[in-house]
Protein backbone atom coordinates (compact mmCIF):
# COMPACT_ATOMS: atom_id res chain seq x y z
CA UNK A 1 0.00 0.00 0.00
CA UNK A 2 1.31 3.43 -0.98
CA UNK A 3 -1.06 5.35 1.28
CA UNK A 4 -1.49 7.99 -1.38
CA UNK A 5 -4.71 9.36 -2.86
CA UNK A 6 -5.05 11.50 -6.00
CA UNK A 7 -7.79 14.12 -6.28
CA UNK A 8 -8.61 14.89 -9.91
CA UNK A 9 -9.73 18.41 -10.69
CA UNK A 10 -9.85 20.53 -13.81
CA UNK A 11 -8.56 24.11 -14.09
CA UNK A 12 -11.14 26.89 -14.25
CA UNK A 13 -14.89 26.74 -13.77
CA UNK A 14 -17.06 28.59 -11.28
CA UNK A 15 -16.67 26.00 -8.53
CA UNK A 16 -13.13 26.98 -7.44
CA UNK A 17 -11.88 28.87 -4.40
CA UNK A 18 -9.09 31.47 -4.25
CA UNK A 19 -6.43 28.72 -4.20
CA UNK A 20 -7.67 27.40 -7.58
CA UNK A 21 -9.09 24.19 -6.09
CA UNK A 22 -12.64 23.26 -5.33
CA UNK A 23 -13.33 24.68 -1.90
CA UNK A 24 -13.78 21.30 -0.26
CA UNK A 25 -10.73 19.62 -1.81
CA UNK A 26 -7.90 20.88 0.42
CA UNK A 27 -9.87 20.08 3.60
CA UNK A 28 -10.00 16.44 2.42
CA UNK A 29 -6.31 16.46 1.45
CA UNK A 30 -5.38 17.86 4.86
CA UNK A 31 -7.62 15.42 6.71
CA UNK A 32 -5.90 12.52 4.94
CA UNK A 33 -2.50 13.92 5.91
CA UNK A 34 -3.63 14.19 9.54
CA UNK A 35 -4.41 10.48 9.33
CA UNK A 36 -0.93 9.57 8.13
CA UNK A 37 -1.82 9.31 4.44
CA UNK A 38 -0.62 11.44 1.57
CA UNK A 39 -2.86 13.15 -0.96
CA UNK A 40 -2.20 15.21 -4.09
CA UNK A 41 -4.35 17.19 -6.47
CA UNK A 42 -3.85 16.69 -10.21
CA UNK A 43 -5.50 18.96 -12.76
CA UNK A 44 -6.64 16.77 -15.62
CA UNK A 45 -5.29 17.98 -18.95
CA UNK A 46 -6.02 15.88 -21.99
CA UNK A 47 -2.64 16.80 -23.52
CA UNK A 48 -0.90 15.11 -20.56
CA UNK A 49 -3.22 12.15 -20.21
CA UNK A 50 -0.57 9.44 -20.74
CA UNK A 51 1.78 11.07 -18.27
CA UNK A 52 -1.04 11.44 -15.74
CA UNK A 53 -2.07 7.83 -16.21
CA UNK A 54 1.47 6.52 -15.62
CA UNK A 55 2.00 8.73 -12.58
CA UNK A 56 -1.24 7.79 -10.86
CA UNK A 57 -0.86 4.11 -11.67
CA UNK A 58 2.61 4.05 -10.11
CA UNK A 59 2.05 6.36 -7.17
CA UNK A 60 -1.50 6.10 -5.83
CA UNK A 61 -3.83 3.55 -4.24
CA UNK A 62 -6.93 5.39 -5.35
CA UNK A 63 -8.37 8.52 -6.88
CA UNK A 64 -11.26 10.81 -6.02
CA UNK A 65 -12.86 12.45 -9.05
CA UNK A 66 -13.79 16.09 -8.46
CA UNK A 67 -14.61 17.19 -11.99
CA UNK A 68 -17.94 18.57 -13.08
CA UNK A 69 -18.42 16.99 -16.52
CA UNK A 70 -19.82 20.33 -17.70
CA UNK A 71 -16.35 21.84 -17.12
CA UNK A 72 -14.56 19.25 -19.23
CA UNK A 73 -14.74 19.10 -23.00
CA UNK A 74 -12.78 15.84 -23.16
CA UNK A 75 -15.03 13.88 -20.84
CA UNK A 76 -14.66 10.63 -22.75
CA UNK A 77 -10.83 10.79 -22.68
CA UNK A 78 -10.93 11.51 -18.97
CA UNK A 79 -13.21 8.52 -18.39
CA UNK A 80 -10.88 6.39 -20.51
CA UNK A 81 -7.91 7.24 -18.25
CA UNK A 82 -9.99 6.46 -15.15
CA UNK A 83 -11.16 3.18 -16.63
CA UNK A 84 -7.58 2.10 -17.32
CA UNK A 85 -6.52 3.05 -13.81
CA UNK A 86 -9.36 1.02 -12.31
CA UNK A 87 -8.38 -1.96 -14.47
CA UNK A 88 -4.85 -1.64 -13.07
CA UNK A 89 -6.18 -1.90 -9.51
CA UNK A 90 -6.30 1.80 -8.59
CA UNK A 91 -9.44 2.25 -6.46
CA UNK A 92 -11.89 4.50 -8.33
CA UNK A 93 -13.95 6.86 -6.21
CA UNK A 94 -16.04 6.47 -8.18
CA UNK A 95 -15.41 4.15 -11.12
CA UNK A 96 -16.19 6.14 -14.32
CA UNK A 97 -18.97 3.74 -15.27
CA UNK A 98 -20.50 4.16 -11.83
CA UNK A 99 -20.49 7.93 -12.45
CA UNK A 100 -22.35 7.32 -15.69
CA UNK A 101 -24.66 4.65 -14.26
CA UNK A 102 -25.76 6.62 -11.21
CA UNK A 103 -25.64 10.09 -12.69
CA UNK A 104 -27.38 9.67 -16.03
CA UNK A 105 -31.08 10.43 -16.07
CA UNK A 106 -31.88 6.91 -17.30
CA UNK A 107 -30.86 5.58 -13.88
CA UNK A 108 -34.59 6.12 -13.30
CA UNK A 109 -35.64 3.64 -15.97
CA UNK A 110 -33.15 1.09 -14.64
CA UNK A 111 -34.98 1.37 -11.31
CA UNK A 112 -38.57 1.51 -12.60
CA UNK A 113 -39.25 -2.02 -11.42
CA UNK A 114 -38.44 -1.01 -7.82
CA UNK A 115 -40.68 0.95 -5.43
CA UNK A 116 -38.39 3.98 -5.93
CA UNK A 117 -39.56 4.89 -9.44
CA UNK A 118 -43.02 4.74 -11.09
CA UNK A 119 -43.33 1.83 -13.54
CA UNK A 120 -44.46 4.14 -16.35
CA UNK A 121 -41.10 5.92 -16.58
CA UNK A 122 -39.45 5.71 -19.99
CA UNK A 123 -36.15 6.68 -21.64
CA UNK A 124 -35.94 7.64 -25.32
CA UNK A 125 -32.63 7.23 -27.12
CA UNK A 126 -33.95 7.83 -30.62
CA UNK A 127 -36.29 10.44 -32.03
CA UNK A 128 -38.69 7.96 -33.60
CA UNK A 129 -39.50 6.14 -30.36
CA UNK A 130 -39.92 9.46 -28.56
CA UNK A 131 -42.37 10.81 -31.11
CA UNK A 132 -44.33 7.57 -31.17
CA UNK A 133 -44.56 7.06 -27.43
CA UNK A 134 -44.78 10.52 -25.85
CA UNK A 135 -48.22 11.40 -27.33
CA UNK A 136 -49.57 8.26 -25.63
CA UNK A 137 -48.00 8.84 -22.22
CA UNK A 138 -49.07 12.49 -22.22
CA UNK A 139 -52.67 11.64 -23.07
CA UNK A 140 -52.93 9.84 -19.71
CA UNK A 141 -51.75 12.80 -17.64
CA UNK A 142 -49.08 15.42 -16.95
CA UNK A 143 -45.49 14.41 -17.65
CA UNK A 144 -41.99 15.65 -16.96
CA UNK A 145 -39.46 15.34 -19.80
CA UNK A 146 -35.84 15.36 -18.66
CA UNK A 147 -32.80 15.84 -20.80
CA UNK A 148 -29.62 14.09 -19.68
CA UNK A 149 -27.18 17.00 -19.80
CA UNK A 150 -26.88 19.83 -17.32
CA UNK A 151 -28.16 19.95 -13.77
CA UNK A 152 -29.79 23.35 -13.46
CA UNK A 153 -33.30 22.51 -14.57
CA UNK A 154 -32.46 23.44 -18.15
CA UNK A 155 -34.24 21.12 -20.58
CA UNK A 156 -36.42 19.72 -17.78
CA UNK A 157 -40.00 20.33 -18.93
CA UNK A 158 -43.32 19.91 -17.16
CA UNK A 159 -45.84 19.23 -19.94
CA UNK A 160 -49.62 19.49 -19.49
CA UNK A 161 -52.58 19.30 -21.82
CA UNK A 162 -54.64 22.45 -22.02
CA UNK A 163 -57.80 20.47 -22.83
CA UNK A 164 -57.70 17.60 -20.35
CA UNK A 165 -60.31 15.34 -22.01
CA UNK A 166 -58.25 12.83 -23.94
CA UNK A 167 -58.41 9.83 -21.58
CA UNK A 168 -55.58 7.88 -23.11
CA UNK A 169 -56.45 8.45 -26.79
CA UNK A 170 -53.44 9.19 -28.99
CA UNK A 171 -52.95 12.93 -29.25
CA UNK A 172 -52.93 14.72 -32.60
CA UNK A 173 -49.78 16.72 -33.34
CA UNK A 174 -51.63 20.04 -33.15
CA UNK A 175 -52.74 19.38 -29.56
CA UNK A 176 -52.18 22.53 -27.49
CA UNK A 177 -49.86 21.97 -24.55
CA UNK A 178 -48.50 24.04 -21.70
CA UNK A 179 -44.76 23.61 -21.11
CA UNK A 180 -42.92 24.87 -18.01
CA UNK A 181 -39.12 24.69 -17.81
CA UNK A 182 -37.51 23.93 -14.43
CA UNK A 183 -34.64 26.35 -15.11
CA UNK A 184 -36.80 29.37 -14.26
CA UNK A 185 -40.41 28.07 -14.16
CA UNK A 186 -41.33 30.05 -17.29
CA UNK A 187 -44.33 28.72 -19.22
CA UNK A 188 -44.96 28.50 -22.97
CA UNK A 189 -48.10 27.48 -24.85
CA UNK A 190 -47.04 25.26 -27.75
CA UNK A 191 -48.26 22.55 -30.10
CA UNK A 192 -47.29 18.96 -29.37
CA UNK A 193 -45.71 18.22 -32.76
CA UNK A 194 -43.66 21.40 -32.81
CA UNK A 195 -42.55 20.88 -29.20
CA UNK A 196 -41.42 17.32 -29.94
CA UNK A 197 -39.39 18.64 -32.90
CA UNK A 198 -37.79 21.16 -30.53
CA UNK A 199 -36.91 18.32 -28.12
CA UNK A 200 -34.87 16.46 -30.76
CA UNK A 201 -31.84 18.50 -29.59
CA UNK A 202 -31.90 16.60 -26.28
CA UNK A 203 -31.71 13.19 -27.96
CA UNK A 204 -29.03 13.76 -30.61
CA UNK A 205 -25.30 13.71 -29.77
CA UNK A 206 -23.15 11.96 -27.14
CA UNK A 207 -25.16 10.68 -24.18
CA UNK A 208 -28.33 12.27 -25.54
CA UNK A 209 -31.61 10.95 -24.19
CA UNK A 210 -34.96 12.07 -22.82
CA UNK A 211 -36.57 10.54 -19.76
CA UNK A 212 -40.37 10.71 -19.63
CA UNK A 213 -41.79 10.54 -16.12
CA UNK A 214 -45.16 11.17 -14.55
CA UNK A 215 -45.49 14.64 -13.02
CA UNK A 216 -45.59 14.39 -9.21
CA UNK A 217 -47.88 17.18 -7.95
CA UNK A 218 -46.51 16.99 -4.40
CA UNK A 219 -43.31 18.61 -5.68
CA UNK A 220 -44.90 21.83 -4.32
CA UNK A 221 -44.21 20.41 -0.83
CA UNK A 222 -40.53 20.25 -1.72
CA UNK A 223 -37.80 18.06 -3.12
CA UNK A 224 -35.79 16.19 -0.50
CA UNK A 225 -32.10 15.71 -1.18
CA UNK A 226 -30.13 13.08 0.74
CA UNK A 227 -26.40 13.85 0.79
CA UNK A 228 -24.71 10.47 1.05
CA UNK A 229 -21.19 9.75 2.23
CA UNK A 230 -20.74 6.28 0.70
CA UNK A 231 -23.54 4.33 2.43
CA UNK A 232 -24.42 6.91 5.09
CA UNK A 233 -26.82 9.86 4.79
CA UNK A 234 -25.02 12.86 6.32
CA UNK A 235 -27.33 15.73 5.50
CA UNK A 236 -30.78 16.49 4.09
CA UNK A 237 -31.65 19.53 2.00
CA UNK A 238 -35.33 20.34 1.72
CA UNK A 239 -35.94 22.44 -1.41
CA UNK A 240 -39.35 24.06 -1.71
CA UNK A 241 -40.25 25.50 -5.11
CA UNK A 242 -41.32 29.16 -5.28
CA UNK A 243 -45.09 29.35 -4.80
CA UNK A 244 -47.60 30.09 -7.54
CA UNK A 245 -48.53 29.32 -11.13
CA UNK A 246 -47.13 26.13 -12.61
CA UNK A 247 -43.92 26.42 -10.58
CA UNK A 248 -42.33 23.06 -9.95
CA UNK A 249 -38.59 23.74 -9.86
CA UNK A 250 -36.43 23.07 -6.82
CA UNK A 251 -33.42 24.96 -8.19
CA UNK A 252 -32.06 27.97 -6.28
CA UNK A 253 -32.06 30.08 -9.44
CA UNK A 254 -35.82 29.60 -9.87
CA UNK A 255 -36.42 30.94 -6.35
CA UNK A 256 -36.81 27.70 -4.38
CA UNK A 257 -36.22 27.95 -0.62
CA UNK A 258 -33.60 25.64 0.91
CA UNK A 259 -33.59 24.28 4.44
CA UNK A 260 -30.93 21.99 5.90
CA UNK A 261 -32.10 19.13 8.13
CA UNK A 262 -30.48 16.34 10.04
CA UNK A 263 -31.13 12.90 8.48
CA UNK A 264 -32.76 11.80 11.77
CA UNK A 265 -35.66 14.13 10.89
CA UNK A 266 -36.32 12.05 7.76
CA UNK A 267 -36.14 8.61 9.33
CA UNK A 268 -38.82 6.99 7.18
CA UNK A 269 -37.16 8.09 3.92
CA UNK A 270 -33.66 7.25 5.14
CA UNK A 271 -34.59 3.76 6.41
CA UNK A 272 -36.51 2.95 3.27
CA UNK A 273 -33.73 4.13 0.94
CA UNK A 274 -30.97 2.38 2.88
CA UNK A 275 -32.92 -0.89 2.78
CA UNK A 276 -33.09 -0.59 -1.01
CA UNK A 277 -29.45 0.42 -1.53
CA UNK A 278 -28.10 -3.08 -2.32
CA UNK A 279 -30.70 -3.42 -5.06
CA UNK A 280 -30.04 0.08 -6.39
CA UNK A 281 -26.34 -0.65 -6.57
CA UNK A 282 -26.91 -3.91 -8.44
CA UNK A 283 -29.31 -2.37 -10.96
CA UNK A 284 -26.98 0.55 -11.70
CA UNK A 285 -24.14 -1.69 -12.84
CA UNK A 286 -22.95 -3.32 -9.59
CA UNK A 287 -20.08 -0.89 -9.01
CA UNK A 288 -19.06 0.16 -5.52
CA UNK A 289 -21.16 3.06 -4.18
CA UNK A 290 -19.86 6.54 -4.96
CA UNK A 291 -17.87 8.31 -2.22
CA UNK A 292 -20.00 11.48 -2.11
CA UNK A 293 -23.35 11.52 -3.87
CA UNK A 294 -26.91 12.75 -3.61
CA UNK A 295 -30.32 11.21 -4.18
CA UNK A 296 -33.34 13.50 -4.67
CA UNK A 297 -36.87 12.48 -3.70
CA UNK A 298 -40.38 13.81 -4.27
CA UNK A 299 -43.40 12.79 -2.17
CA UNK A 300 -46.21 10.73 -3.67
CA UNK A 301 -48.92 8.42 -2.27
CA UNK A 302 -49.19 4.65 -2.46
CA UNK A 303 -52.48 2.79 -3.21
CA UNK A 304 -53.47 3.08 0.46
CA UNK A 305 -52.90 6.82 0.50
CA UNK A 306 -49.74 6.62 2.60
CA UNK A 307 -46.70 8.79 1.90
CA UNK A 308 -44.22 7.32 -0.52
CA UNK A 309 -40.92 8.78 -1.74
CA UNK A 310 -40.14 8.73 -5.45
CA UNK A 311 -36.58 9.08 -6.71
CA UNK A 312 -36.13 12.04 -9.08
CA UNK A 313 -32.42 11.86 -9.81
CA UNK A 314 -29.00 10.90 -8.49
CA UNK A 315 -25.88 13.06 -8.76
CA UNK A 316 -22.42 11.67 -8.16
CA UNK A 317 -19.77 13.17 -10.40
CA UNK A 318 -19.15 16.51 -8.71
CA UNK A 319 -21.07 16.64 -5.44
CA UNK A 320 -19.44 18.95 -2.91
CA UNK A 321 -19.86 19.71 0.78
CA UNK A 322 -18.47 23.25 0.88
CA UNK A 323 -21.28 24.37 3.19
CA UNK A 324 -20.28 21.67 5.68
CA UNK A 325 -16.50 21.49 5.64
CA UNK A 326 -16.50 19.81 9.05
CA UNK A 327 -17.35 16.62 7.14
CA UNK A 328 -13.83 16.48 5.64
CA UNK A 329 -12.58 14.21 8.42
CA UNK A 330 -15.47 11.78 7.90
CA UNK A 331 -14.77 11.78 4.17
CA UNK A 332 -11.08 11.02 4.77
CA UNK A 333 -12.03 8.13 7.08
CA UNK A 334 -14.38 6.80 4.42
CA UNK A 335 -11.70 7.04 1.71
CA UNK A 336 -9.29 5.05 3.87
CA UNK A 337 -11.99 2.43 4.59
CA UNK A 338 -12.87 2.05 0.92
CA UNK A 339 -9.22 1.65 -0.12
CA UNK A 340 -8.44 -0.76 2.71
CA UNK A 341 -11.44 -2.91 1.82
CA UNK A 342 -10.63 -2.94 -1.88
CA UNK A 343 -6.95 -3.75 -1.36
CA UNK A 344 -7.52 -6.58 1.13
N1 LIG B 1 -41.47 13.79 -11.85
C1 LIG B 1 -41.42 15.05 -11.39
N2 LIG B 1 -42.53 15.64 -10.87
C2 LIG B 1 -42.48 16.91 -10.40
N3 LIG B 1 -41.39 17.70 -10.45
C3 LIG B 1 -40.26 17.17 -10.95
C4 LIG B 1 -40.21 15.83 -11.44
N4 LIG B 1 -38.94 15.59 -11.87
C5 LIG B 1 -38.24 16.73 -11.68
N5 LIG B 1 -39.02 17.68 -11.11
C6 LIG B 1 -38.61 19.07 -10.76
O1 LIG B 1 -37.70 19.52 -11.75
C7 LIG B 1 -36.44 19.86 -11.16
C8 LIG B 1 -35.30 19.51 -12.08
O2 LIG B 1 -35.32 18.13 -12.42
P1 LIG B 1 -34.08 17.19 -12.15
O3 LIG B 1 -34.47 15.81 -12.54
O4 LIG B 1 -33.59 17.37 -10.77
O5 LIG B 1 -33.02 17.72 -13.22
P2 LIG B 1 -31.68 18.59 -13.07
O6 LIG B 1 -30.57 17.66 -13.48
O7 LIG B 1 -31.81 19.73 -14.00
O8 LIG B 1 -31.54 19.00 -11.62
C9 LIG B 1 -36.41 19.10 -9.85
O9 LIG B 1 -35.57 19.74 -8.92
C10 LIG B 1 -37.88 19.13 -9.43
O10 LIG B 1 -38.18 20.38 -8.82
MG1 LIG C 1 -31.89 18.14 -9.85
How do the strands and helices of this protein lay out in sequence?
Layout: E1 4-9, H1 25-34, E2 38-43, H2 49-59, E3 62-65, H3 75-87, E4 91-93, H4 96-103, H5 107-110, E5 122-124, H6 127-139, E6 143-147, E7 156-161, E8 176-181, E9 187-191, H7 192-198, H8 200-203, E10 210-214, E11 223-229, E12 232-240, E13 257-261, H9 267-283, E14 292-301, E15 307-315, H10 328-343
Helix pairs in contact: 1-10, 2-3
The protein binds adenosine-5'-diphosphate (ADP) and magnesium ion.
Catalogue the ligands: adenosine-5'-diphosphate, magnesium ion
User: How far is it from the N-terminal to the C-terminal residue, by CA?
Assistant: 10 Å
**Strand content range:** 25-35%
Q: Any idea what the CATH architecture of the largest domain is?
A: 2-Layer Sandwich
Q: Can you give the helix content as a percent range?
A: 25-40%
Question: Any key phrases for this structure?
Answer:
15 strands, 344 residues, alpha+beta, 10 helices, D-amino Acid Aminotransferase, Chain A, domain 1, six-stranded antiparallel β-sheet, binds adenosine-5'-diphosphate, Cathepsin B, Chain A, 3 domains, Rossmann fold
Amino acid sequence: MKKNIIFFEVKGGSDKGADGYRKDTMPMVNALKERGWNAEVIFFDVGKKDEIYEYVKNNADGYVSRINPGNLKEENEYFEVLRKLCNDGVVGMPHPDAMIGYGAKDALTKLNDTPLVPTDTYAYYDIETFKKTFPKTLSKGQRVLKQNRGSTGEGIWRVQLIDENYNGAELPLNTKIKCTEAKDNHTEIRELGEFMDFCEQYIVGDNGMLVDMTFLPRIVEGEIRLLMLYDKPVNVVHKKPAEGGDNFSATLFSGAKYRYDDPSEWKELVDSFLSQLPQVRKKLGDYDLPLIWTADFILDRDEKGNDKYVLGEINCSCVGFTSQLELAGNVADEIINIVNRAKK
